[in-house]
Amino acid sequence: MNMEKHLPIGHSWRSSKWFILSTVAIALFAETFLYGFLVPILGEMIQDRLHVHPSKAQKLTSAVLALHGTLAVLSAPIIGHYADKNQNRKTALLLSLGWCIVGTGTVAGARSVPMLLLGRVMQGIAGSAVWIIGFATVADTISPNHIGFALSIMMSCANTGTIGGPAIAGLLLEVAGYWLTWSVPLVVLTIDFIARVCMIENPASPPSTSDGIPTETARLLPSRQEEQVSPEIGNLWRIMLCNGRAMTCLLTIIMGTTLNTSLDATLPLYVEEKFGWGPSTTGLLFAGLVVPGVLIGPVAGCLRDRIGTQIPTVFCATLQAIVLGVMGLAGSDIPWASAQNMGKPLYAACIVALGTLRPFVSGIAPVELTATTKAMQERSPGIFGPKGGMSRVFSMMDVAASLGMIIGPIIGGSLKEMLGYRYMSWTWSLVYLLLAALTICFLGPEDTDKAPRSEEEAHP
Question: Where does the Major facilitator superfamily (MFS) profile domain lie (predicted)?
Fold first, then answer.
C-alpha cells in the first residue's frame, strides 16, 4: 500500500506497453514529418529568405538534404554508445526533442546559409537519436513473439510522416504563407513533448539474469574464472559485424535505402522524358511507393512473428527482382512496353508492386537484429555490458540506412547516365536476387541459436 501511494499519477497507463509504443510512434512520426516538411519549403527559403543566386540553388538544396544522412553516419555510433550506458531512455528522448525544437526554430528563422545548415545539423542529430533510442525502447518493451508486429507499426508511423510532411507543407505554403505553415511542426512537436513527458519507462529485465532477481543459489561475487572470461563492452561492434545474420540485415537496409533514394534522383526525370508526366503525377508515383507499406507493414510484421523472416523475405525479394526487371522495360523500344502502348500502366503497376513488397523485405532488419542481440545476451550474459547493447545495435541500423541515403542518388544517377534507365533497373534486380541468396544462407531459423557467445567465437 505504501508503494502504491508513492507511485506517480496515472502510473498504470503511463507505464503501459501501449502508451510507450504510442510515444515512440509519435516521436518517429515527428522526425520523418520534419525531415520531409522542409522539402517543398526549401526552394522558397533559398530564393526569398537567403537570397542565394539561382546558379547555386540546386547545389545548396542537395547539400541541405544530404546533411541529414551524413550526420547520422557520424553521430549514430556515439549516440548508441552513450544510450546503452544510460538506463533512463526517457531522459535521452527528451534531450533529443530539445535539440529538435531548437534546430527546427533555427531552420524556420534562418536568414543566412550557415544558420540554415546549423539548424539541419541539430535536426539530424536529434533524428538519429530518436531512431536509435526509440527502436531500442520498443525492443526492450515488447516480447520476442510480438516484436515483428510492434516494429512494423513503428515503421508505418514513420512512413506516414514521410508522406504527410511534404504534402501538408506544400499545401499550406500556397494558401497560408510561410510562418503559418511552420506552425504545424510546432503542434506536432508539442504533442510529441507531452507524450514523452508523460511516459514512464517499463524496461525489460537486464540481460545478465533471466528475470532480473538473484536467486538464493546465485553467487554474490563472480569467481576468478568468470572474471577472466567476462567479455569487454567494446566487443559489440566486432562481434555484430562478423555475424552473418546481422550483416545480412545491415546489407538489406543499405540495399533498400539505396534503391529508394536512387528512385528519388532518377524517377522524376525519366517519367517526364518518357511519358510526359509532370510533378503531380510524379507525386502520385512516390505515394505509390510509400502508401502500400503503411497499410501492409503490420501484416508483414504479423507474418514474420508467425513463420519467421526467411520465407517471406526470399519470396518477396525475388518478386522485387522480377518487378525491377519489368520496370526497366516500361517505356523502352519494345513495342508492347513502349510509352504509346502498355508502358505507362506497366510502369505505374511496377511502382505500386515495389511499395507493396517492400515491407516484407526491408522490415526484416529490426526484427532480426533484435533477435540476434537478445540471443547473444542470453547465451553469454554481460557480453555487451551490464545494460545490454540494443542502442548500439540500432545505431548500426541507422548508419546503414544513412549510407544508403548518401550513395543511392550517386549510384542511381551514375548508372542512368552511363548505361540508361533500363540497365539501372536491371542492376537493382540483380542486387535483390543477391539479397534473396544471402537470406537463404544466413537467415535460417536455427541461426539465432548459433550466435557466438564471445568475440573469440566470432573469430574462430
Answer: 20-448
Q: What integer pLDDT is reported at residue 279 of this predicted model?
A: 67
Q: Which has more pLDDT, 8 or 252?
A: 252
Q: DSSP string covering 197-229, please?
A: HH----PPPPTTSSSSS--TTS-SS--HHHHHH
CA 59-62-68 angle, to 5 degrees, is 140
- Is residue 360 helix, strand or coil? helix
CATH 1.20.1250.20 domain position(s) in the chain: 11-198, 236-443
DSSP 3-state assignment of 364?
helix
3 state DSSP class of 52: coil
Collect all residues with Cβ–Cβ distance below 8 Å to 383 and sequence separation of at least 6: 231, 235, 236, 239, 376, 377, 389, 453, 454
- Taking only the tens place, the pLDDT of each residue in 334-377 is 777 777 788 888 999 999 999 899 889 888 888 888 888 888 88
Other Cβ atoms closer than 10 A to 47: 13
Contact 35, 165 (CB under 8 A): yes
The grid coordinates of residue 59 equal 547545389
Pairs from 104-113 (Cβ < 8 Å, separation ≥ 24): 104/34, 104/185, 104/189, 107/38, 108/179, 108/182, 108/185, 110/45, 110/49, 110/50, 111/49, 111/50, 112/50, 113/50, 113/52, 113/60
Instruction: Indicate whether 274 pLDDT > 60.
Output: yes
Angle at 256 between CA 350 and CA 167, to 5 degrees: 70
Q: What is the DSSP string of 146-197?
A: GHHHHHHHHHHHHHHHHHHHHHHHHHHHHHT-HHHHHHHHHHHHHHHHHHHH
What is the grid cell recorded at 140?
Answer: 526492450
Q: What are phi and psi of 269, to 5 degrees?
A: -70, -40
- CATH number attached to the domain at 11-198: 1.20.1250.20
User: CB-hemisphere CA count at 13 Å for 106?
Assistant: 18
In whole angstroms, give the CA distance from residue 224 to residue 415: 58
Count of other CB atoms within 10 angstroms of residue 435: 23
> What CATH number belongs to 236-443?
1.20.1250.20
- State the sign of the Cα–Cα–Cα–Cα dihedral 394, 399, 405, 410: negative
Distance, in Å, from the CA atom of 219 to the CA atom of 180, rounded to the nearest integer, reads 63
C-alpha to C-alpha distance for 2 and 9, rounded to whole angstroms: 14
8 A C-beta contact, residue 384 and residue 369: no
* pLDDT tens per residue, range 135-153: 888 888 888 778 888 888 8
Helix axes 54-85, 390-418, angle to 10 degrees: 150
